[in-house]
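Researcher: Please translate sequence to structure tokens.
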Amino acid sequence: MKKILLIMVGGTICTALNEKGTLSVSADAGALITENFYASDSPYAGSVTFDITENLGILSENMTVDNWNRMIALYRDSIGKDSYNGVIFAHGTDTLAYSAALFAQLLSDTDIPVFFVSSNARLTSPRANGNENFRAAVECIARGIVPNVYAVYRNISDVRMYLHPASRLMQCGNYSEDFYSFGAMDITNINDENSAEYFEMLRKSYPPEKRKPGFDFSKLPPLCDHVLMLMPYVGLRYDVIDYSKFSAVLHGTYHSGTACAEAENERHMLLSMLDACGKEKADVYFAPSKPEGEIYDTVRVIASHGEGNEKIRFLYGYTNETAYAKLLLAYSVMSEEEREEFIRTERNFEKIDA
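Model: Translation complete:
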């Protein structure tokens, strides 16, 4: 008999319609999820049991760094109560990729599989994929998937179930109910007679021995919201931000690794932002971008502005979600000497070859 810890975070997978006709988190969500699994035709319905935690009741759009601290505390306190074959987080879709990226770093050396599952609609809706997503996670654990942190999700567009490395999962786009990642594996037919090949392929692609040590939760201080994340758009105003409130700024880029560096108006000048951050001793990271190779003039201007200023750095090969998670951890719990190695070092297959 396999025993699984089910951590109820919240989000759509944990919601029901209330008297106002809107969705709110339901106290009965854990029971509903597991009852639906037991009533399914899964070959493992009779060979798994669940320990269900309290429901944190967090709609995923309301996820904050403080709520991440609540998630970490609930995981730490719950995992120590018994021996489990796996863990499943029931989480909303809106911030799924961010939470998955964070825990992929925190649990980079986990010795049991950890899954994030969500749903595109409340579980009682006929169009919901949450029951199938939960079932896929349970079956992966029951079949002995190689330990790591994953997300499973059945895309609506092609009706295929995908297994995602949590460290590479990207946010679901607007007007979409699909999730994507670099390295996703189609596991729609996981229970076919040849399904063992899935896990052998997974082990070869992500060998456990290449993962770096995770974090000791008993010694992990609370995470702090000292990292500002900016995404470029036409007319971004840099002059309205108080950079003294942050230890680091993660500046996203357009798809070609660029950002506006030559605006005439100081309100929109990225370079003035760099100077302001330098004055406030806030480190700046551009991601995903790199200052070498066949780059655009704008990237050269940014890189040149940073000559002699070690506070300006470039990150390449991470999703925005993982870049943010790594910076948040680095600036919350590490000394200045430890940060750079942690940020640059691949810990759980988060580096994307592109």
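Researcher: Any highlights?
Model: The mean pLDDT is 93.
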